What we know:
The protein has helices spanning 37-43, 46-55, 61-73, 79-86, 94-105, 117-142, 156-165, 171-184, 191-200, 206-217, 225-236, 242-249, 270-286, 290-303, 313-323, 331-352; strands spanning 21-24, 29-32, 35-36. It folds into 2 domains: 21-222 and 335-352, Citrate Synthase, domain 1; 225-323, CATH 1.10.230.10. It is globular and about 70 Å long. Strands 1-2-3 form a 3-stranded antiparallel beta sheet. 55% of the residues lie in helices and 3% in strands. By secondary structure, the chain is mostly helical. It binds carboxymethyl coenzyme *A.
Amino acid sequence: MAEGMVAKGLQDVVVDDTWICKIIGDQGKLYYYGYSIHDLAEHCTYEEVVFLLLKGKLPNRAELDQITRELKEARGLPYGVRDVIKSAPKGSIPMDVLRTAASALALTDPKPGDDSPEGRYRKAIRMVALFPEIVAADYRFRRGEEPVASNPKLNHAANFLYLLHGKEPGADAARTMDVALVLHAEHDFNASTFTARVIAATMSDMYSAVTGAIGALKGPLHGGANEGVIKTLLEIGEPANIKPWLAEKFKDKNFRLMGFGHRVYKTLDPRAIVLKKYSEKTGRERGTTKWFEMSNEIEQIMKTREKPLYPNVDFYSASTYFMMGLPPEIYTPIFAVARVVGWCAHVIEQQTHNKLIRPAADYHGEIDKPLPPIDKR
Ligand code: CMC
């Protein structure tokens, strides 16, 4: 291959077939198993999307009852994992705690070596059920509080808020979290999912694949951007500061505005359209639309630049979570709570049609160099 011919960052390289998710980047469209993200966000719960992603079809009433039961039965943080979370040094980064706890789930799995189709499905349900408990336990330990047990009356999203705050959420907050989880559940071959697939393709196990994926999600160019967005809004502080702040920052050509731009979408990310509505709605419910309005103003400025940039999923999720009273350090863990099902679906798909993922590189150094003895180097 001639020098300079590599596809940096695998941009636009098609690496495998998939049946799970389709993105049409120039039209801002996203589908899970053929269903539009707008329809899924409006009409489905996270449990329905979990079934869709793991089974490839929408559940009927009996199937939804069944998977809801399975998810509830898989709740209950094993003591070993709880101890891992509790023993994290003060000041640990929440994504590091989640990554470590996700890995520790393998040690408490009754059948860690069972990677049969049934075993993989059971592990997927277990991880989907336990991720909210891990994130909430860490959140509460940091505040000097004990974790609370899951509430069997509540669905996945409402229970997550209950685990965080120790009290039942209102219907609006529960629905907002449900929609956020649906929107973040899956996104084809993004960096964390591809990481999971690379690990799965060695025929390693689901816990290893998901643990690796969490490490990839943590980065500020991926899921870590939502924490960056709220830091940006807080740093700007007031609407009057937006224009001078942006003008100053964009003097540096390497500056990246968190929550903007996307490898695949060249227009508005459809998930941002939905989250924008929830950001405004949540602001109205909480009696302050300041963060929503500032976000909207930034969006308008960015789209009229010479090279327009559009919000991605992380942009309006940040102000939505902030107005729900959630602290910035758990925004990326919330992304993982949602995305774990997408990772698991891809691990299953990869291992069902497996081929080891082992690309080639374009080496630019010398070869066959004489090896000098140590005192002649
Ligand atoms: N701020 C400023 N400039 C940007 C941004 C941004 N957020 N995003 C892209 N650009 C510019 C970039 O400077 C480049 O300009 P030029 O052609 O003049 O060099 C051009 O747009 C193309 O950018 P790129 O970095 O080559 O595009 P990429 O596909 O490699 O990167 C990205 C995609 C998401 C890493 C990038 O847009 C970015 O860094 N965004 C900020 C971080 C962020 O919000 N990440 C969340 C992604 S969506 C949720 C998820 O899946 O995790």
